[in-house]
Amino acid sequence: MPTLVVATANPGKVGELADALAGTPYTVLGLESIPDATPVEETGSTFEANARLKAEGYSRRTPHLVVADDSGLEVDALDRRPGVLSARYGSPTLGDAARCKAILKALVDTPDAERTARFRCVLAVARSGSTLATFVGAVEGTILRELRGDNGFGYDPIFFHPPSGRSFGELTRDEKERVSHRGEAIRKLIDALLKGELG
Question: At CA 196, angle to CA 119 and CA 69, rounded to 5?
């Protein structure tokens, strides 16, 4: 059976892709399946650059296809920050709730009409050190003035999704996957896999 290695130490992300590929010929494994899972340094200045770095780096350590993602939040009033630094905004030691509060503090004087933002995701697929394809997903929304909801992770509780009428923190996992940036990129990846476009 063809195998896809997900370049993440986050079991939730591995499970998400495994669920999405259920019923296909693909077996989905995490980084624990390769002999050297030493983290690949993310030195890129864009989501695509970091996704490519991770996919290519780990694909040199396994014969299987490797998929890596980089994603984050872009807030227009903050000049599209935190962007590629989303996981380290404020301080690398902050937790999710503290990072959300740091964004809210930075936007405390920003009018509602100017609190536009988006989540963006890039998936890169590589084999033997070369990127074969990238897949992009994005979802538009606004930044709330307080945390809402206990679901999801990261900035989900402060990201309001107008078509749903709720924050990402208030959506179930299935609801979020149908509309999220990552869900969109995953659907494009699966389509390419099933069409045999990635070898």
Answer: 25
Q: What is the pLDDT of residues 87-104, one digit of tens each?
A: 899 988 999 999 999 999
**Is 184 among the domain residues?**
yes
For residue range 167-189, what is the model confidence (pLDDT) as tens digits? 999 999 889 989 999 999 999 99
Catalytic pick among 19, 36, 69, 70:
70
Q: How many domains, the chain?
A: 1
Residue 177 lies in a domain: yes
Measured CA to CA, the distance from residue 29 to residue 15 in angstroms comes to: 9
- The verdict on whether omega for the bond into residue 92 sits within 30 degrees of 0, i.e. cis, is no
Pairing of strands 3-6, 65-75: parallel
Cβ neighbours of 90 (radius 10 Å): 16
Domain ranges, residue 187 = 3-194
In a domain, 199, yes or no: no
Answer yes or no: 70 catalytic: yes
Is the separation of the CB atoms in 136 and 121 below 8 Å?
yes
b/e 156-175 (16+ beta carbons within 10 angstroms → b): bbbbbbeeeebbbbbbeeeb
- Residue 58: give its domain's CATH number: 3.90.950.10
From residue 195, give the alpha-carbon distance in Å to each of 20, 134, 189, 190. 16, 15, 10, 8
